[in-house]
């Protein structure tokens, strides 16, 4: 198996990890503000990782350049989302209620998307593709692009790390929280700066053989952060409800859990379908991508059923319609697998 395909699979698995991780936090408590921010952070990481995966696996230079540029919707938003999440986690008093502050805070993300998106400012600047052990790498001719990426990521990451260190110093010593936060800081600082070398400086220093590893290294701080948030009740902060059939609130809660579970099954099926069909089976990228996107989109629709209507009959009808819409795609997928086997 070629090295670029191996790295493409690694990026894809990382993307699935981040996506499921964020969805799990929202299922745990959708009303939590910190959960919503954490979902945005993990979804940006998933988009970042998926774009790298598709860029690695595509055979044509145009497709590689497109997906490499598409990754800006992941990393371009990630640093803002991560710092915003850290501000909430550390209970910082930064005033986001002012429109001016919000615009300034998210301005670097919008600038990055304007510069590096598939139809952005640098889209008309040709990419120079150079071979490496991690697949074909794109070297952007404009050095100002690399300088901007470094400044944007460095400023936001260093600020987030300083806030975490200040929060760490306020925690009482010899406690479990202090120990876990210490591990989280170590797992955060190392991957960020090691990844910065592989993502930003490798092209400048001529180290084309090194694949981009920031999004892979971020798995370690994500795991530690999940342990901290779950162990100390910052994510799973919804109390467990006792089941009482006559209680309307509990009935609604159980129905919401049903829709969330079904949506999770659709999402897992979509991710597994693409992985098996494209990476393992070697099928057409566009066909597998469309099939997985349709199944995943239907799963997302399931999450909003309880918000569309409170009437159980309407919810049941919508659930049935979405399930029926998913059946032809699944049946066609199975027939396609049997025909090819």
Task: Walk me through this protein's architecture.
A hairpin with a 2-residue loop joins strand 1 and strand 2 (135-140). The chain has 13 helices and two strands. Helix 1 (3-28) packs antiparallel against helix 2. The two termini are 20 Å apart. With 341 residues, the chain is mainly α. Residues 236-246 have low confidence and may be disordered. It has helices at residues 3-28, 33-57, 61-70, 72-89, 99-116, 143-170, 176-204, 214-217, 219-231, 248-280, 285-303, 305-308, 312-340; strands at residues 127-132, 135-140. A two-stranded antiparallel sheet has the order 1-2. Helix content is 75%, strand content 4%.
Which secondary structure elements does this structure contain, and how are they paired or packed?
Elements: H1 3-28, H2 33-57, H3 61-70, H4 72-89, H5 99-116, E1 127-132, E2 135-140, H6 143-170, H7 176-204, H8 214-217, H9 219-231, H10 248-280, H11 285-303, H12 305-308, H13 312-340
Antiparallel strand pairs: 1-2
Helix pairs in contact: 1-2, 1-10, 2-3, 2-4, 4-5, 4-6, 5-6, 6-7, 7-9, 10-11, 11-13
